[in-house]
Structure formats: structure tokens, C-alpha cells
Amino acid sequence: MIPASKTNAPILFNSFKHHIQWVHDLVQNYTDADLGALIREFQKGNNLFCDYYFGQKNISDVIQGATEYLKDRNVFEKDRFLRWLQKSSGKYRNFQLDDGSEWTLLVAEQDQYFVHLHPARYSIYTIRVRFLALKTAILLKLFCNSVEPDVQTLNWIRTEYLQASPLKINSSFSHIKKVLNLFENTSVLSSEK
Question: pTM value?
Fold first, then answer.
């Protein structure tokens, strides 16, 4: 089963793109029947950079922290939230969880979601990585569970499942290895409170 990647309205949090717990939940529950749904989920995102959280706060903790932050400021309703953003840069505001991690609140462009939440750029307990590298690392984790994949396996995943061009045989793919090492060395977070 593919873990849900979005939260309840009004907060939109794409956990597969921003939180390591999603990968741990995926690996724990993955079956071959899930591959099609996983690839469709991956096609929703672009291949630009994303900020990926690997701290000890689980997804529920992050959402709860954002909800409390917005409610404490009386901006949990759409009109108030939009006016509140306009008073700053007009585009986003950051807040901090009690673990020291910084999170960004933006306007979400979906009907029932008006708050888009993701880790702040270069926050503690995050890495900044290309989304294609993240998707590649996730599939490598599922298919071969190795932090040292060979270039042929890596290219098979990139071309077969991600419609990406292959890497050169002698090219460095340190960014993918960095994400794989993160998956390997980060403790599993409970999705329960």
C-alpha cells in the first residue's frame, strides 16, 4: 500500500516529497502491486529541488505544529491566512518546531487546501535534493536496498520507471547515494502519536 502523501484540509503537505517517514512507511508496506500507483504519484512532481526532512518529528507532529501555529495567530481561515501573508513578504512565512526545524507556509493552489507546508530551505534536519534523485533513491531502496548501487541498476530504474535519461558510466551519483545513506541511517519514525 502506498502511504497517503497529503494531509487533511486546509494544510497541504506532500509527505513523500518532504518527509522521510513516508519512505519508511512505504518500504514497510510495499508490495509489487503498488508499483503503478507509486509511479503515478512520482509523476505529479517536478524534478526541481526539494527540501527533505529527516528529523525526529513524525508527519502528524509536523502537521499539528503548523495547525497550532496558525490557530495561535488566528489565521487558520483562508481570508485571514491570505491577509497575514500579505503583511509579510506576501508569499510565505516560516515558523519553527520545538526540535529547531524551520517550516515554510505558502498559499496552496487547490480548492480545499489553502496552506502549503514544507521544510524551510536549508533548515536543520533537512537536505536539499533534486526530486529526481529522491525518486531514484526511493526506487533503489525498494528494488535492491543497497546504498552502493551499480550504474546499470541505477540507469535501469531511471529509464524504465522515471523516464529520465541514463547517467554516464563513469559519472558520479553522489547525490543519490547521499539520499540512500540517509534512508539507511535514519531511525524509523512511528506514524502514530
Answer: 0.88
